[in-house]
Amino acid sequence: MQSPPPSPSDPAPVVDVEQAEAALVEHYPRLVRLAYLVLPPSLGRNRRVLTAHSLAQRALPRGRTSVDAVAVPAPRGGAARHGDAGYAYVRLHVLRSALDAGLPLKRKAWPKRAQLPPLLPQVWGLRLFPRSGGADELALDQRLSALSGPARAAYVLRGLDGLDDAGACAVLTAAGCDAPEAALAEAGGIEARYDLLASPEFDPCSLQARPTDLMRRRQHMRAAGVAAAAALVCGALLGLPGDGWGPDGAAAPPYAKNPAGQAALDPGKLTKVAAATWKRSARTDFSVWPARGNLTGDKALLRRALAVWARPGESVQVSATPGTAAGAPPGPAQLLFAGEVDAARVVLLYDGLRIVRYAEPREGTSGAALDFARVDGATGAEAGAVVVNRADGNIRYLTAPWVTSSSVQDLLKPGAKGASLPRSEDGVTGPFAGPAQNGRCTSWNALRLRDNSGAVRMSTDLGELVPAHLTSGRPQAPREATAADWTKSACSLASVRSHGVRSVNSWAYARQTLPEGDGAAAWVCTRAETWRGGGSRVLAQFQTPEGPAGAVAAKAEDSPACGTRDPQVLAGVLWKSRAGHWYLLGAGSKDVTSITASGGERARGNVLAVRTERSTRARLSGELADGRKVATLR
Fold this sequence. Notes:
Largest sheet: 10 strands, mixed
Number of strands: 29
Structural class: alpha+beta
Strand content: 25-35%
Number of helices: 14
Radius of gyration: 28 Å
């Protein structure tokens, strides 16, 4: 359970690791930008970028225990956005570490962790730096570099988080600044161009890359090559006697050619399904997709795609969804698409278990990419579309042959009509903006596909080749989702991005009348299933009529709750009424017949509301009609 964000007058709340982690993930770009601005410019832009990310990633509490957060005033924009206790905690630790990084090293004292180069993240062979701004940004950067570390922190807290002098002074004091008033006065000595802090010049999450010293790197690589060759010779000499280090039994010698492996690399052996096959088949999976695109006959392109799949070079960018093998094809694959899309040549292949996407620039092959996604058992809505290209935040899909129309629906605007999405003769959609990834959930676009039977199915991009199918309703009988089913839960989908998600179900398992006549709230459980089977994620959300999005009341990973195996759930929150009174609220699925709080309070039915204090740390338990117990989701 977690309580709403504290107001400035409330005592310091208690922050657990999960709450701090949620705040860190949600506000990660803002925290990294804050660290980058406060770090001393003498570090150089490459080290400032890596150090800023390192400081933000090390801001979580150590261990699994709860910690006290520092109560600070909410920043401009409301406490509901950036003033929660979790954000205040991680912001304080990021700021404290950034100030430590600017301290001079002392001879007779051990350096602090922040004063040393970051262990993680590390980038080899490249220098990273934010995109260049204009003359105004350059002038502001020069003025900030002339300030002391605390003064830069004061300026950033005022401009980036919108704190007034009292709030900034409180944060600086908590961060260990000895003279916060002097820092504020020093920061006030330069022009207040706070709007420039949002410029890409100061965004360490949007980067440019340049090579390091190439001549020096070449010398180092030669030395490393000589050392590796010497080690290889020594290893061969040691392995000569007997059977060596590991005999392979009945396997053929390493130089022997495998017929199936050779066939997998032959573009002439690719399976190309005829255009009308799907109409005569009872199957609705990738195996009946026809080969489409204007380059299906380009054997040179197909040969390159198959060769890179089998042996990706060092320059190839390879990605795979969790639980997906990235190895060579076991035999001849099926060709789904080969054609030019935007500024790339794209090949989509299917081997019965995985979708493989190969992409290269139209001119040359430098910068090729290879993506893997597991799709075993995909059928119907799960085999309705595949990402064919991403560019500038936009997505294009290759749709299934049975799709008759496509549109884009903003899940945060259920009343708005979906925008029609044109498709080419090959079934490639026009580009449309994917869900925002900058931490600000102001819209969430979903793909709506209508098939030849008239059924409409909705899915959403989660950063992988195959979009996640969205459903709604009880776990035993989910139905196709509508935008209204996901309006207040859509932003929670960001927590399962790039997690190998197959489908996500939203289930409104309880409705509760709020005390003191403050309306009614919905309790919603969202469950994300993965292609690999394990790693499912479950969120229980408390949704009030006023809030634009639900508050996460509980979450779990690899839990059967809210699923077909265990369609039960119980969660609770601390809630503050409009009159300022605190209540312990809890709700379970309809099979829960009673709920008991750790303080002894008990309610019949599947909802509970008990007057309490803000500092209460209560636990709930439920009971089913057959006497079985139900614990809160965790």
